[in-house]
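My hope is that you will study the protein record below before we discuss the fold together.
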Amino acid sequence: MTRETAFRIMIIGPRWSGKSSTGNTILGLPLFESGRIRTLQCEVRRGTVCGHRLTIVDVPGWSQIPITKTSVANKQNFKLSWTKCLPGPHVFLLVIPMDKAFTKDQGQYVQEYLSLLGDHVWRHVVVIFTSWDYLDKKTTIDDHIESEGEVLKKVLAKCEKRFQVFDNKNNTNPDQVQELLPKIEELVKMNAGGFYKADEKIMEAITEKRKLAAEMASQRKMETDRIRETQRQLLRELEQKEPIAELRVVLLGN
C-alpha cells in the first residue's frame, strides 16, 4: 500500500462526544462546526493528511436512550449513513469521551446502534478516546480503561482493542493523527483492502419501507387536496346563496 492511499472514514458516537472536533483534528482544519453546534445530518469533508487522501463523514450522534425508544427514521438514517462515502467506509471511528464514566447503559447503546450496521461492522471499528485533557496527567490510557471496568473492555474486545487517544483541545499536535493513520492503514490491510458493505437484505428492507412511506405521504397529500377543494367549493356555494359579512375560520391539522 502506497503513501497515496485514499481512506473513507465515518465518525460515529453519542451526542456531544467530540465527533466534529475529532474530524477537525484529523484534517488539521476547522472544517466541521463544533462546540455548541450539534450535528443534525451527515456532513462530508475532504483533505490530504500525511500523503493520504481522506474523506470524512461526521454522522449525527445518537441519544443516550435505548434503541427501542429511537424513532424509525433516526434508525434508518443511521443505517444509511455509510452511503455518504460510497462505495463504503474503510473505517468507523467510534468516539468515546473520557470526561464521563462509561456506564453499562452507554455500553448497551453503543452495541445496539452498531448492531444496526451488522456484526461485521466491528472489523472496521477503531475507538477514539476524546477529552483526554480532563484526566489527571499521571493517568495512562491503560489505567483509565482498567478503572472503567468490564463494560468498556467489552466494547474494546469487539474491535480487537484498536483505539487511539485524542486531545482535541491541543489539535495542533500532529502526533495523535500520525499515530492514527498507520492504525487505519493496518486495519485496511487486515481486511484485504476491503471496506464496509451493508447487508443487501437490510438495504432492500429499508428501501421498501421508504417507498411505502412515500406512497402513503402521496396519498395523504391527495386526500388533503381533495378536502381543501371541497371546503372551497362549499364556501363558494355559501357566498352565492348569502354573502358572508364576517368569516370565522378554525385551522386544524398537523
User: Anything to note?
Assistant: The beta strands are 6-12, 43-49, 52-58, 91-97, 125-130, 163-165. The longest strand covers residues 6-12. The CA atoms of residues 83 and 89 lie 9 Å apart. The chain has two domains: 6-197, 199-245.
